[in-house]
Amino acid sequence: MEKVTTGIEGLDALLGGGLPRGRAYLISGEPGTGKTTFCLQFLLEGVKQNENTLYIGLDERPEHLIEDALSIGWDITPHLKAERLRIVDITSYFATHPTQEEPTDPMQIVDDIVRMVHQGQVTRLVIDPIAPLTGHYSDRAAVAQYVRKLIFSLESEKACTSLLTSYMPVGAAGFSPDGIVEFSASGIIVLRLVKHHAKYMRSIWLRKIRSAANDLTEYSFDMLPTRGIVLRQPL
After folding, report:
1. pLDDT tens sequence across 137-174
2. What is the pTM for the complete model shown?
3. 190 strand-pairing partners
4. What is the pLDDT of residues 87-109, one digit of tens each?
5. Number of Cβ atoms within 10 Å of the Cβ of 155
């Protein structure tokens, strides 16, 4: 199976060359564990290879993402101008306007995202985070149906590899607030804060990667200027 390199030092070797192309992966972690940095690093690796990449933000304004990237030494403005990297803010989908009785149909949001991927010939997609998309539904069966629709639709674009981020509640057993996304995703990459002696360190764990043999060892990592996430030793 064709692999997609992540651009994260030390990770691709654990993945046997990268993530299987055309699948959707869940990037799960507590606040401050580096989910957005992970995803941005993945997109910038695609930019280096002249791929079209797309970041869909639901919690962070585009200008804040640009500032955050610059804070670790990544000037993404030239990539935005060249349209190798696009940032789309879809928070307006969740606002109810005076002339609109209900927010946009969540299923329509899925169709619009897939259309952006197809028309833009996007090969790397990030949805950060996924929770606002599933938040329309209170019934678990409806959430499960929606998640399947989203992931199956994304994976129908076989040239595009997708990362979906999810907040992982502190101390929770699941990897997403609804506990459903992890069952449909083709892989789960867990980022954690682990206490070691008197300080905390960040760690990464490849919980599940379909169609690939993956190392289940948990590794510590650093987030370094210009280099981003760099894997270190096993825990």
Report:
1. 677 888 888 888 899 999 999 999 999 998 876 666 66
2. 0.89
3. 28, 205
4. 998 877 766 554 555 656 778 88
5. 17
Sheet holding 219-224, edge to edge: 85-89, 52-57, 122-128, 161-167, 24-29, 187-196, 199-209, 219-224, 228-234
| pLDDT of 135 higher than 90 | no
Give the mean model confidence (pLDDT) for residues 42-50. 96
- Tell me the three-class secondary structure of the chain, residue by residue: CCEECCCCECHHHHCCCCEECCCEEEEEECCCCCHHHHHHHHHHHHHHCCCEEEEEECCCCHHHHHHHHHHCCCCCHHHHHCCCEEEEECHHHHCCCCCCCCCCCHHHHHHHHHHHHHHCCEEEEEEECCHHHHCCCCCHHHHHHHHHHHHHHHHHCCCCEEEEEEECCCCCCCCCCCCCHHHHCCEEEEEEEEEECCEEEEEEEEEEECCCCCCCCCEEEEEECCCEEEEEEEC
For residue 94, what pLDDT is reported? 67
Q: Which residues are CB-contacts of 75 (< 8 A; sequence separation ≥ 6)?
A: 69
Nearest to 88 by CA among 46, 52, 48: 52
**76 vs 144, more confident:** 76
Preceding peptide of 103 cis, ω within 30°: no
Nearest C-alpha neighbor of 7 from the set 51, 66, 64: 51
**Residue 48 burial (CB count, 10 A):** 11
Let me know: does 143 contact 179? Beta carbons within 8 Å: no
How confident is the prediction for the chain on average, in pLDDT?
87
